Amino acid sequence: MTAPRAHRAAPDHTHPDHVPLLTALSALADPVRLRLVRELAGSADWDRACGSFDVPVGKAALSHHFATLRAAGLVEQRDAGPKRLNRLRRAEFDARFPGLLDLVLRAEP
């Protein structure tokens, strides 16, 4: 008999209105997080599960990167069964930091 799965707590989300500029810049400065943001920018909302990103880090590091992006107001996550789905908070982030995300997404990888 298999043990029941532990229930995951819903992740905390920081609204971009409460994010200092240096926190946003720091979150976007990491190459792995920048790759996650770029992939989310090219995907439909709630279309990408955490495990669907091709990044050179393990699960624990990936969780840390997503937590950093949530704390910077860039990403929102929700659970859908065993998957955690993601969306880029583009409109909210753009309202707080106009043009920053466009500039970062246009930059060479």
TrEMBL record:
Assigned keywords, A-Z: DNA-binding
MF terms (GO), sorted A to Z: DNA binding; DNA-binding transcription factor activity
Protein name as catalogued: DNA-binding transcriptional regulator, ArsR family
Domain of life: Bacteria
Domain HTH arsR-type: 13-108
Gene3D superfamilies: Winged helix-like DNA-binding domain superfamily/Winged helix DNA-binding domain
Keyword Repressor tagged: no
CDD domains named in the record: HTH_ARSR (cd00090)
InterPro entries recorded: ArsR-like_HTH (IPR011991), HTH_ArsR_DNA-bd_dom (IPR001845), WH-like_DNA-bd_sf (IPR036388), WH_DNA-bd_sf (IPR036390)
Keyword DNA-binding appears in the UniProt entry: yes
